[in-house]
Amino acid sequence: xxxxxxxxxxxxxxxxxxxxxxxxxxxxxxxxxxxxxxxxxxxxxxxxxxxxxxxxxxxxxxxxxxxxxxxxxxxxxxxxxxxxxxxxxxxxxxxxxxxxxxxxxxxxxxxxxxxxxxxxxxxxxxxxxxxxxxxxxxxxxxxxxxxxxxxxxxxxxxxxxxxxxxxxxxxxxxxxxxxxxxxxxxxxxxxxxxxxxxxxxxxxxxxxxxxxxxxxxxxxxxxxxxxxxxxxxxxxxxxxxxxxxxxxxxxxxxxxxxxxxxxxxxxxxxxxxxxxxxxxxxxxxxxxxxxxxxxxxxxxxxxxxxxxxxxxxxxxxxxxxxxxxxxxxxxxxxxxxxxxxxxxxxxxxxxxxxxxxx
Length: 358
Ligand SMILES: [Zn+2]
Fold this sequence. Notes:
Layout lengths: L1 H15 L56 H6 L40 H10 L5 H9 L11 E2 L14 E2 L9 E3 L6 E3 H18 L4 E4 L4 H14 L21 E7 L5 E2 L7 H9 L5 E5 L4 H4 L4 E7 L2 H10 L4 H9 L9 H4 L4
């Protein structure tokens, strides 16, 4: 039942997303058919997210905030109080339907990211969701998205890889701790060394250009710490918890490659929510890829990522791939991984996806 709900969500997303927001496809592939409707995805959520200050403040209007953070893990939990709203991703009120997309001009096996053993799953997924661009359908099947969230879970074999896909279908080993964690300069939070260095360079560039800083609230979290957080959220909000908190073993924070920022509200309080209205966020959207970071849970792609829009959560994947993803116009790391990494010639890439076993 949950699987069907998730699949329905995928279809609803592709129906509802305006065509202009669809990720780009290969230049030699057929363009996706225009969406028959253009209802903003956000409009089908119930209830809508709480209103936030909408204007992006000018640098002069924002007090520089220190990069360092004295927040304890307990206050990290407290800062999530914004999620009390009952937002459940599966609660779509729109059913799949409408016009059929044109049949693909290419045979499935002509797509660069075609994997032979997935052929029947491609066919089933495309048949169920004909509005999906075929290239995206293949990509999503390649990363097990057709199984639904927390179904068909694959154990990640190479969690140390910068390109590791850690999500609701790919689980990190319980005992995985990155080998080269270090404190991010000026903070009490840790990241993998390369990611920490990339963040520090990015933060310096942001300071140089805007005179602003970032407040770091979270980076590496252990499996046990994630278990504590998820358990606390689930006790308080069992219906909505999976839309904003990862189950232990499924959090990007366990990889040491993710970092969260806070937003200082006019009242002086610090929250994750509202970060999308800051000049820092606007700058990151344009420049973060140059330092190897991507916005991991973008607005409008909640059914694919499995999480509500998290403007504060950024993930290090390396400059080469972050730039490639940025230039391809791809919004989710799921699609990027399923498109470019599954059959990549470079052995560095996520071998768990090349040799998926259940
Ligand atoms: Zn995060």
